[in-house]
Amino acid sequence: MFGMWETVPKQKASKINNITWKVSVNVGFGYLVRLHFSEIGLKMAKIGGVIFAVHINEMIAATRADMVRERDDENDIRWYRDYMVVTKGHKEEGKRDVVICLQSSDEFIDGHGPLKGFEIMKLSNHDNSLASPNPVPSSHESSYRTRQNLHKVLGHRNMIATLAITLLVAVNIILYISRQIWESGGVEEKENMPSARAVRLCRRFSLAEIQLATGNFSDAHLFGRGGFGNVYKGLIDNGGETVGIKRQKLESRQGAHEFLTEIETLTELRHVNLVTLVGYCNEHGEMILVYEDQTSHCAPT
Question: Which of 27, 34, 129, 134 could potentially form a cystine with 93 if both were Cys, beta carbons 3.0 to 4.6 Å apart?
Answer without folding.
Answer: 27
